[in-house]
């Protein structure tokens, strides 16, 4: 059997390190079918960042880790219903076991959060083993039990501009819309892939013309696998137009859309298909044209958040609510 080349393997979200000692076996199995040419990444809950687990993951071939810190401030961890962690244990584990990328996830737009607080978070991350971080604007999912008043949009926008300015001053590189690397060399992203195969309960798969979601029900998942069937619960067959929009949405995460890449991907000319939208985006100051590509501005990145928030609430939120209750729903209606 000829092995297929894939760039990367990613374990997440949730807490895959609960089965840290199985990761090597899973990687080995995947290696019999695929050749991984670049990285193996994993999402880690702060509780899982111990020297022993990091050594086990490194031995399994993991090269990139992303730790869901969310905030180093006790008051925000409480707001997000997270426990407190032993940061010294995390930092000393990171000092002992090296990875190509050590990323930490944060959330901004929590009540009363200021740039001073976020600067402390960023510097704590960079001074204690991280070389990359993600900072996501807060999204108000319907299934989480929020007990605080959300930051208003004006303040959130101001905070985003302050984060961008601060990171520019420090020379940190904004490699994706919500991520920065310390030196520009260490990337981490599970989100900006043209195609991917999802294995496991609730995993999604993106193909050239299809998007699929596996069942969220563990028993049903096992049942399907044991009987030699795919555990797909929902499937969307893209129209050409939908696929192009999907490509553009996720490519915009890189803050640039290249006309040549778009042509290679879709066989169509970007400006012929989206000339009006791009012109409007330029007039509104959301993008700038640089040679062959459209580059998103800071203003554009704030309004992208609007769109992402809308997409997340009208699609991901609905899908999760449905899939949590039904292993194989008949359909998902997106309004
Ligand atoms: C976006 S995902 C995956 C991030 C991962 N580092 C990557 O690039 O593959 C998970 C992260 O989203 C963030 N997140 C979770 N809930 C959120 C919410 N309600 N609003 C904003 N961000 C949230 C958290 O920082 C969490 O660690």
Name given to the CATH homologous superfamily of the domain at 4-181: tm_1862 like domain
Secondary structure class reads alpha/beta
End-to-end distance, in Å?
Answer: 44 Å
Proportion in helices: 40-55%
Supply Rg.
Answer: 21 Å
Which percent band covers the strand fraction? 15-25%
CATH topology of the domain at 4-181: pyruvate-formate lyase- activating enzyme
With strands numbered from the N-terminus, the spatial order across the biggest sheet is 2-4-5-6-7-9-8
Give me the number of helical elements.
Answer: 11
Q: What general outline do the C-alpha atoms trace?
A: globular
Q: State the order of secondary-structure elements, H for helix, E for strand.
A: EEHEEHEHHEHEHEEEEHEHEHHEEH
| Major pleated sheet | 7 strands, mixed
Mean pLDDT: 94
CATH architecture of the domain at 4-181: Alpha-Beta Horseshoe
Number of strands: 15
Q: What small-molecule ligands were found?
A: S-adenosylmethionine
What can you tell me about this protein's structure?
The structure is a single chain. With 335 residues, the chain is α/β, with parallel strands linked by helices. Among the domains are: 4-181, tm_1862 like domain (pyruvate-formate lyase- activating enzyme, Alpha-Beta Horseshoe); 241-296. The protein has eleven helices and 15 strands. The protein has helices at 23-31, 51-59, 74-79, 87-96, 115-127, 153-170, 218-226, 240-251, 259-266, 270-283, 298-325; strands at 4-6, 9-11, 34-36, 40-44, 64-70, 101-108, 132-137, 173-176, 179-181, 204-206, 210-214, 232-237, 256-258, 287-290, 293-296. It has a seven-stranded mixed sheet with strand order 2-4-5-6-7-9-8, covered by helices on one side. A hairpin with a 3-residue loop joins strand 10 (204-206) and strand 11. The protein binds S-adenosylmethionine (SAM). S-adenosylmethionine (SAM) is lined by residues 13, 66, 68, 70, 103, 105, 107, 134, 136, 138-139, 141, 188-191.
């Amino acid at each position: 059997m000829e092995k297929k080349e894939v760039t990367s393997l990613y374990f997440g979200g949730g807490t895959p390190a609960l089965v840290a000692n199985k990761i090597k076996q899973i990687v080995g199995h995947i290696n019999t079918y695929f050749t991984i040419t670049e990285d193996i990444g994993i999402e880690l809950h702060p509780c899982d960042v111990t020297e022993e687990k990091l050594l086990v993951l490194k031995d399994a071939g993991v090269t990139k880790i992303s730790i869901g810190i969310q905030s180093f401030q006790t008051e925000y961890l409480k707001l997000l219903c997270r426990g407190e962690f032993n940061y010294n244990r995390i930092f000393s584990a990171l000092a002992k076991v090296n990875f190509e990328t050590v990323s930490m996830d944060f959330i901004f737009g929590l009540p009363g959060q200021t740039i001073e607080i976020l600067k402390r978070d960023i510097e704590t991350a960079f001074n204690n083993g991280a070389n990359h971080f993600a900072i996501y604007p807060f999204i108000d999912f319907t299934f989480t039990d929020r007990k605080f008043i959300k930051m208003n949009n004006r303040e959130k926008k101001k905070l985003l501009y302050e984060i961008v300015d601060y990171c520019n001053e420090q020379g940190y590189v904004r490699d994706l819309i919500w991520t920065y690397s310390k030196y520009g060399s260490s990337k981490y992203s599970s989100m900006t892939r043209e195609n991917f195969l999802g294995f496991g309960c609730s995993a999604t798969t993106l193909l050239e013309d299809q998007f699929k979601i596996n069942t969220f029900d563990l028993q049903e998942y096992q049942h399907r696998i044991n009987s030699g069937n795919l555990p797909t619960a929902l499937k969307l067959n893209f129209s050409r137009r939908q696929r192009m929009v999907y490509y553009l949405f996720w490519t915009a995460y890189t803050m640039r859309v290249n006309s040549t890449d778009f042509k290679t991907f879709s066989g169509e000319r970007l400006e012929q298909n989206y000339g009006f939208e791009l012109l409007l985006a330029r007039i509104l100051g959301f993008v700038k044209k640089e040679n062959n590509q459209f580059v998103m501005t800071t203003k554009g990145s704030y309004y992208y958040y609007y769109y992402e928030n809308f997409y997340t609430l009208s699609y991901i939120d609905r899908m999760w609510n449905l899939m949590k209750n039904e292993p194989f729903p008949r359909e998902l209606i997106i309004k």
